[in-house]
Design brief:
It comes from Streptomyces sedi. The protein is built from 1 helix and 4 strands, in the order ββββα. It has one helix spanning 54-63, and strands spanning 12-15, 27-31, 36-41, 49-53. The radius of gyration is 12 Å and the shape is flat.
Length: 70
């Protein structure tokens, strides 16, 4: 089922505490988007955004023991 794109003009982005291990890799998620978790590369804030359904995002986090962005 397609995930609806949220309006991100006023999104509150936060960077993962596990981002950037010296390699310049930074992932951010936006909070407050009902049913969707937007994810982007913080180095390209105006670049593309991946939108995951909340159930899919929870499944992803559980595969990593909730040690990534969440």
């Amino acid at each position: 089922m397609p995930t609806q794109r949220p309006h991100l003009n006023a999104a509150r982005w936060r960077k993962s505490s596990y981002s950037d291990g010296g390699y310049g890799t930074c992932v951010e998620v936006a909070d407050g988007c009902a049913g969707v978790v937007p994810v982007r590369d913080s180095k390209r804030a105006q670049g593309p955004v991946l939108n995951f359904g909340t159930a899919t995002w929870r499944s992803f986090l559980s595969a990593f023991g909730d040690r990534t962005v969440g």
